[in-house]
Structures
1.
Amino acid sequence: MIQRFEDFHPAFTFFYYMGVILLLMMFQHPTILVIALLIILMIHFVEDRFQNLKRWSLLIILSGVLIILLNPVFNQRGRIVLFIIGDHYITLEAVLNGSVTALSIMAIISIFVSYNEVMTPNKLLFLFSKLLPQFAVLLMLTLRFIPLMRRRLEEISAVQYSKGIAVTDGNWRKKVKNGLLYIQVLVTYSLEEAIQTADSMNAREYGKGERTTYDHFRFKKIDAVAFLWVGFLLIYCVIGRLYGFGVLTIYPMMDPIPLTGMEWCLAIGMFIFIAFPLVVKGGGRLKWRILISKM
Amino acid sequence: MAYINFKNVTFSYPENPAMPALQDLSLQVEKGQFVVLCGHSGCGKSTLLRLLKQEIKPHGAILGDIQLEGQSLLVENSSSKGIGYVFQDPENQVVADEVLHELAFGLENVGLSTNEMRNRIAEMVNFMGAENLLHRKTHTLSGGQKQQLNLASVLLMQPNVLLLDEPTAQLDPVSAREFLDMIVRLNGEFGLTVIMAEHRLEEVLAVADKIVMMEKGQIRLEGRPKEILPKVWDSSEKPYVPTIPSFYLKVFDQGQEGCGVGASSEVPLTVKEGRSWLRERRDGSPVYGYESTESTQLISEHKLDKPELPPSEPIIEVKNLFFQYDARKPSEAILKGLSLNLHKGEFYTLLGGNGSGKSTLMKLICGVSKPQRGKVIINKRDLKRWGRQELAKMIGYLPQNPKLYFIQDTVGKELQDTLEQWGLATESGEKRTSDLLNSLGIPHLTNKHPYDLSGGEIQKVALACLLVRQPQILLLDEPTKGLDPVSKGQLADILLELQSQGLTIMMTSHDVEFAAKYADRCGMMFEGRITSESSPASFFKGNFFYTTMIQRLFRGYTEDVVTMEEAIRIWGAR
């Protein structure tokens, strides 16, 4: 079977995403961030042709543009003045500072969208249940209760509607009153039913002793390899960063913007790290082709 | 030494120390037995079951002793690990959002290793044939599947005793039968001791080793099904006797025996036994055998009994209705061009499988959902032109779950609220309300919280709240679900009384016997349409599966017998 990025062990997937976010926050350099953002967009494109990202595009673009625009408004520090509006100085430093923040925020939101798709509640639950078994049960119940409550509320409003009571009725006071009555019914009903859930949990020995968890995911060799590879890249990047590379110093004196040779070495390490899902996908395609050509 | 032994157990809840829930009760259950508990709701069945399971034991004062394999269950720290418990409501027992997680839940609690869990789950999934359900979200399962899941997750704990508290009360008959078959299999193939509280004796009679009839915390009758049924028949619990034995016993009562068949202890329990009894009778008696003339006579008699309604005004007209929940998925349409006519004063029952759209149709008729295409005409006016308040006054809708009906915290407040909403809080309005409560037999419930009532009571209370606003049409979604036979009879009386006052009643049901007995017309829903529709007699006549027990009993002898009353009459007319 061809390995997909989603099939890696949740611990690895979690590690990858946290690593990406860490790197995006550490390397505050416009060139690096632009390329990183492009790679993340590519991940989305390859995954689902931007289907998921589309829903978030407004938020991503809006927050990016706002930060770029607002930073120079409140920040007049810097030596290189681009232009003056009234008595307000717009400096290159301020614009660059804003862009760096904007880029890293946009990149982080984009990678989070992918995280949401890949780290299903199940995987998260699995990870947490290793650390905090009791919390995991709570999380599991919550996951079940949210859609349950929503369905119940729908039922309640249908029945009350048939009685001639609706939240859309009358002035706002009446609306609020009816709405609160709905919620009251929902809460009493749910509490009442939850007693039975608790009984059913008790009847299955819940809270009697040490809890174990069912391992839904097995840690395979390929997970270990991936961990080693990505871990190596992360350490490489972090050490480089600690030596002071890969960040654009803006204040008090701005560094030259182009990356030095050493910084390029570091940046490429980071790009390979972020591009891991693309590597997996590309590798999978290649393997598939080879398999097919052999047949 | 009995396996499970109740020795003179008296148990009372703290709220009501004067009225013990169990009173000096003694019961022995042998290993591997299949025991069925029955009786009205509130007779102590659940209390008895719960006392066996340490973890969910009710609080209260207990006298006497309960022993499992000679070990008392009442001492501190006694373990009831070998006891599994399945509850009534399929939905509320589920803890996890995915089937696999749910199955693993109990195993995780006892601290098994992943490997062992995987083995046990694999085995169970195989046994239940549920491979394709493993990764489904639990809320997408049907009620029957949920209950099977609950059973599976209890069985995974490898119990020796299985306790079930009305496990099929919330299921439709097909799922209920599947569930019971599974229990029977577990009992038969694995020797699991089963104690089950259950109203539907029909399905379990043939396999139960012991029936225990309870009343007011005491055991009224107890014994093997064939021995106990005649005794139940002679007691006030008559409605509990299923159709076929009760037909036999009724005939027996009328003293029309004498053809070589029968002491009351040979009461037939299944259709098979019933038919062989009928055959024996016929062979033994040359007089026996139905002439076609008698059949026709029977039909006319039936018509006299339930006169065909004069062709009155149609009150509900449904024309070419289309409905789907998801606009993007026309292939999943629920209703596909459904048409229906209901006349004033009619009692109409809609039958059909789960998810065939019965409930959806009701919601469309009372305006809660809007159809994509087609028309609903109430009283010659298009539904779209009815104001919501007007419509609510015209139609009373009782949802499948009557608990959701109540918005106030006592029955009295809910009634008062309804009166005020409709401007009926006058003296005459209140007088009418109290008359209504009296006629339903529920005036003592006004200070109670609706959730504290039993299934039958909450149904009556919700009906009362509906009737206060004097609707002309009643839409009832599965009103017979989960009711014990006595409450069911009371519901039928109420509905017939309302019908005689001129109300039009439409209900959905899985209960074939109920429909056959009380409805004027039955309709069958299939593929988003009503495929057949007629009076119960001709509706059930041709059906093979979807028909009453009596019709199955008489199939091949005479075709027109659908209800018990008809069967008795033709027996007498012979």
Note: Chain A touches chain B through 52 residues (CB under 8 Å).
2.
Amino acid sequence: SKWKESLVERTLSRQNISLMQHVYGKPSSFSATPMNRNQDGGDGEESDGDEFFKPKGEGNKKSREGLDGTNFNSEDCSKFTNYGELKDWKEEEVYESIRNHFVTGDWSK
Amino acid sequence: MAKINYRRLKGSQNFRLRLLLATLSSTPVIIEDIRADDTLPGLRPHEISLLRLLEKVSDDCLIEINETGTKFKYKPGIVMGGRNLLHDCGISRSIGYFLEPLIVLGLFAKKPLSIRLKGITNDSKDPSVDTFRSTTLPMLKQFGVPSEGLDLKIESRGSPPLGGGEIVLSVPIVQSLTAVNWIDEGMVKRIRGVSFSTRVSVQFENAMIYAARGIFNRLLPDVHIFTDHKAGPQAGNSPGYGISLVAETTSGCFISADTTVSYARRDGIDLEDEEKNELMPPAEVGVQIASVLLQEIEQGGVVDSTHQGLLFLLCALCPQDVSKVRVGKLSPYGEETLRQIRDFLGVKFVIKPDTSTRTVMLKCVGSGLKNLSKKSS
């Protein structure tokens, strides 16, 4: 129906922004700092005591998470296969679901 | 002499992309904090090997590494290319790791590149040399790279951990790439593949192929997987087996998947390796890789997830025309590539999800990189 169309359009445009933001980060006007500040604040309260010496590894883990959410020294690898999420392609429902990606599929579309 | 303005970067992430883009855009870089807090700090053997390879193919470049290897300076020179070069890639990463930046660099060299690379030809982490032959090289042709002089010969194979394989890569030079409007992934019309085995029985290959075919048979009759059994000196130093599959579509796209099974490295660097001492049986490998390929096909897009990075890179290196491409779900490496492209070339993509097919459309205007060393006549 008609009222749905504008909704769909709005979600689409919103998704569009979010995908660009996801890749390139948010525009500087509303940056992600408040989130990080909260995390840092939480840390500060805990470490006020006699935790004078901090293991170096732990201290860094937190600051690194803030860095675009990606690991700083993450592995340089173009291959990305999630073997854990493999479907069972022997099942008829599963393989029939991609039939139209093949020439044996329905050409009418 | 004018002071060189170095761009300062941190960490070992996107090492290859950074070096490649620094070279293509002639941006001197300093990378600091490379695994500074690791038990094994600094650059890894494959990263140093890649720096040496850059030195080998270019003239007048400057590389300085500090004592611990946690910081280095790189001033790119002119990429020369040249014939009969030789490079030992070592055994900490496979040859695929080096091929990915090298093919792009080769296109923008002064002379056509022909280089013999030694090391591991197939492993589970990087795209195998078979995938390069079947998928990566045809992909370059979409961007106007001539097919003469574009070749990869596998002379001998090497599985991890000890390698011992050898390949010869030839890359022609281009004056510039041509922008693409590549959004139709078409329908899969045939599936091809190569299985290989080194220092094990050919039966391993037959079992993998049989299992993989079993998955495809219900979808497509045109499936051929060839065997490439290596023995003697051509089989390298370690036992292993694996398979590389490619689905070719009606619109000339190639979607690939590959894997290799071998014993894990024991040098202490790759401790997090998922492979245990027990190797996965070949029949399971066949089913698994066939499933991975079907999953890649299901995603849609004109390239598979592994090739997204290269696709974006080639689009960004085009002349100042609009390129439009379609991919499935953005892969982490693809996203990283987009960010690095923005940082080094100043090219930003317009990224739009296509909800009806659950794919992603990307558009960009190329950076207008020209190979100045090639005469236009």
Note: Chain A touches chain B through 40 residues (CB under 8 Å).
